[in-house]
Amino acid sequence: MDRNTIQKIFIGLFISACIFIGLHISNMTSIFGNLDIPKQELANNSSSSRMTYGRFLEYLELGWVKQVDLYDNSRNAIVLASSPELGNRPQSIRVEIPVGASQLIQKLKDYNINFDAHPIPRKSLLVTIATNLILPLIFIAGLIFFFQNSDNFSQNAGNSPMNLGKSPARFDQKPDTGISFNDIAGIDEAKAEFEEIVSFLKEPERYTLVGAKIPKGVLLVGPPGTGKTLLAKAIANEASVPFYSVAGSEFVEMFIGIGAARIRDLFKKASENTPCIVFIDEIDAVGRERGAGIGGGNDEREQTLNQLLTEMDGFKENKGVIVVGATNRVDILDAALLRPGRFDRQITVGLPDRLGRLGILKVHAKNKPLNEDISLVQIANRTPGFSGADLANLLNESAILATRYKKQTISKNEVNEAADRIIGGIAGSSMEDTKNKKLIAYHEVGHAIVGSLLENHDAVEKVTLIPRGGAKGLTWFAPEEDATLVSRSQLLARIITTLGGRVAEKVVFGDQEITTGASNDLQQVTSVARQMVTRYGMSSIGPIALEDENNDQIFLGGDNEAITDRIDNEVCKIVNHCEKVATKIILDNRVIIDFIVEQLLDVETLNGDEFRHLLRQYTLTPIKN
Ligand code: ADP
Ligand code: ZN
């Protein structure tokens, strides 16, 4: 039975119990009213007749009592009496007998009075038991069941109302994540830091002996898919300590206080299981800077964050809870989170470089039969900018393609096809031979030629007229090495090359024939040029950071509008200059371009070597920009 049906059954039981109680409410009044005198008897003598217990005793002594009927455990009596007061006619009189008047029966016997005790009727007793005992029992049993039920399932985060304040963390007492440090490649610095943390957890004495404080929190910072989760799983496994894993977004709730309650619950559980690791993925979801955002921020999130801060401060001396957070947006995290004593350590997990990619490919190629024609080195060269996840995906896609083509091993073909797919989207069918196709050919060759002639630009990897993703044609460049530091002339070369496509259209077909196809190129150009001005200080405005990573203006004081104007001016200057350079290159090399376009229209795809082979038939002068 799954949890939903169990809940439904319980709710059904609950409702029928309520209805049952409702139906018996009339019965219950008689029970709660502890009076069970037959109604008609009361009705008979409703008019006059009540007397006090004291008076009843006097009647007894005077011999005026004829008969006594005891009800309700001798707490009420209907007395048949006749007296001069009553006009010497026998009358039924009701008497309330005080608790503890135990000798009454003896007295009745002594005076030889005819008496009878009337027990509470059987049926009524049953109903009493039913309503007083069974129903509450059902109710309590149901509640217990409900709570237990939610307890059992609390590990996979309940939406049940009973679960709201419980931490949705998945918990592994004996983590066998199956991931060891050997499965992680290309992020060696991060790995080394983590290996140290494993030794904190395994032999804390070694550190405390020399007075070293064990870090409470480790923040993994880097783009998605670079192996942050993988690292966290690996330390849990290698240190063989319990592992709690939760995503920051799971603390984001609509109702104020729930996120905070979940955090409290998580840390409570963790502190009962030390030493252990608490992994919070996407920690930016809770750790976003307080008071940021429109409308004065979000109370619920602030409470949640405050709770997290409190909990991390809570364990003064680290007794073995290490919190590992992962984010790709460290810039938006609240500064309080990064203070010493919270996330003491920040580990940057970047995109892998060439050797890193090679390492990652080796890890993921382990269980895949590769054909001899595959060179992992070549794939690594071809895939700058790929994350670990992209590379894993690349090999997986290749394996799927190999299966589709009914091959026993994965060959170069499949890898190339998979790479093209991942980079550019799924290939469409080739275009009809129309004017459009020719225009696109000029556009792509424009990019390729300009890029090839510029000294500071990467080499052509592929030029194709096969539509892919949203693009009608594509030109790829493969950087030799990963560039984390890019020079001004490299950035300019990128802009010139990106403009090359549209400039070629313009030169060959004229102003009137320019198409909308270059809109993507133009966006890219504008973005690079703008960053040069506002972030890298590469314009005549000077070395001032005017915007942050999110293109939000940094307030400098003074006239903001004037600064915006100056930025726009500088961006235009850069783009105009680059367009001039691109136009000159296209005009100077028109013959070569015509020749290559002809070839490209024929074969539709040229790889880097084929392209360079064609170029070699001409003498070219490299251009410095
Ligand atoms: P993140 O948490 O940084 O977004 P993950 O750790 O979830 O990324 O990585 C997703 C997948 O990508 C992993 O399961 C693994 O298959 C692969 N991967 C990512 N980085 C690496 C790496 N450095 N070495 C090996 N595999 C990796
Ligand atoms: Zn283009």
TrEMBL record:
Residues involved in Zn(2+) binding: H443, H447, D521
GO molecular function terms noted in the UniProt entry: ATP binding; ATP hydrolysis activity; ATP-dependent peptidase activity; metalloendopeptidase activity; zinc ion binding
Residues of the signal peptide: none
Domain AAA+ ATPase: 214-353
Gene3D superfamilies for this protein: 1.10.8.60, 3.30.720.210, P-loop containing nucleotide triphosphate hydrolases (3.40.50.300), Peptidase M41 (1.20.58.760)
GO cellular component: chloroplast thylakoid membrane
Annotated active site: E444
CDD domains from the UniProt entry: RecA-like_FtsH
InterPro entries: AAA+_ATPase, AAA_lid_3, ATPase_AAA_core, ATPase_AAA_CS, FtsH, P-loop_NTPase, Pept_M41_FtsH_extracell, Peptidase_M41
Major localization class: membrane
Record text on cofactor binding: Binds 1 zinc ion per subunit.
UniProtKB keywords: ATP-binding, Cell cycle, Cell division, Chloroplast, Hydrolase, Membrane, Metal-binding, Metalloprotease, Nucleotide-binding, Plastid, Protease, Thylakoid, Transmembrane, Transmembrane helix, Zinc
Membrane topology: Multi-pass membrane protein
Assembly information from the UniProt record: Homohexamer.
Family statement drawn from the similarity comment of this UniProt entry: In the C-terminal section; belongs to the peptidase M41 family. Belongs to the AAA ATPase family.
PANTHER family given in the database record: ATP-DEPENDENT ZINC METALLOPROTEASE FTSH 2, CHLOROPLASTIC, METALLOPROTEASE M41 FTSH
Alphabetized HAMAP family for the sequence: FtsH (MF_01458)
Name assigned to this protein: ATP-dependent zinc metalloprotease FtsH
Organism per entry: Cylindrotheca closterium
